[in-house]
Amino acid sequence: MSVSQQIMEETEQYVLHTYNRFPVVFERGSGVRLYDVEGKEYLDFGAGIAVFALGYGNQAYNDALKAQIDNLVHTSNLFYHTPLRDAAKKVIAHTGMSKVFFTNSGAEAIEGAIKAARKYAFLRDGSDHPADEIIAMNHSFHGRTVGALSVTGNSHYQEPFRPLMGGVKFADFNDFESVKAAVTDKTCAILLETVQGEGGIYPADPAFLSSVRKLCDEKDILLILDEIQCGMGRTGEWFACDHYGIRPDIMTMAKALGCGIPVGAFALNEKTAAKSLAPGDHGTTYGGNPLACAAVSTVFDLFEQEKIVEHVRETAPYLEKRLDALVQKYDFLTGRRGMGFMQGIVAEGKPVGDIVKAALGEGLVILSAGGNVLRFVPPLVITKDDIDEMIAKLEKVLGQIV
Fold it and tell me: CATH number for the 60-305 domain, one of 3.10.450.350, 3.40.640.10, 3.40.462.20, 3.40.190.170?
């Protein structure tokens, strides 16, 4: 029995089987590469599902977290600490929002956004007639907690856990008339991903997002944009909504916000922050702790120092060009869509799960999305040489499938 097989079998004896894990045991990472316990190297175009934006082993990031661990890891949210100030200041500066609340994950950020929207409507309308309905999108994904699952537009994830949170309607992404038809005087918020990720890598159409924003303004409905996967430089702007020149009332973020440290956040604009959550309405023991906030603050600093967003903007067209060439070459690849370093190619009639597994055999980590999409969400520090290497490895796999 190999070392990897022994570790996997022993792990399955003790860990609840809620993931169909790939048969790989990773031990360490360096740059844009991962290494398993037997020393095999993998080019990483998954980044821990769009998390490790800075790549593995960034020395400045590691040093900052080590220093914070030696200083202070946790107090509680009953007290102030300097990393909280620093992280909050940088989030607000880069999002254009007014206030931020730090969570432990993206799903928790969605939960907080839902509560903030309903509290806003409660204060606006009074306790007798509060608007409490939320319109979410079909094929969306917002997380697996009960509230986040309730606004996830995929029955596959929902069915075993019903009844879920009430007061949720679903409309079609990029179909404004569908959204407009769902709005009533009970609607308090419209929630959508600026770029749908798990649903298949679908960017919002500019006219659609602009129309939703206008509708929300007209009816005093809160627009919640989920930037958990598409935010933090991944699309070539700090946040995907920057491409559209649109600000939400509430924005959720996580994943690359901490580049590996578990942290999420939801940020509110001035109007929403002033008339929604108050002391006692929402809380978390670990959210916004000194270690997590040090990670957030360091990530923003390193993104600026290393010009990460500019690098994505400059290099993403090359990734798009190489992926487009693949689509032209193989008949079963029928299209590419995405923004920046959040790309997907559609594979019709071929099991994408098998392609992802075969890619691992070639030393390449890629992901799937939406059932028939190969998803590419690499560390934001990849180079054109890394892209060429990825394409070469992937072509070996695709050539075997034809």
Answer: 3.40.640.10
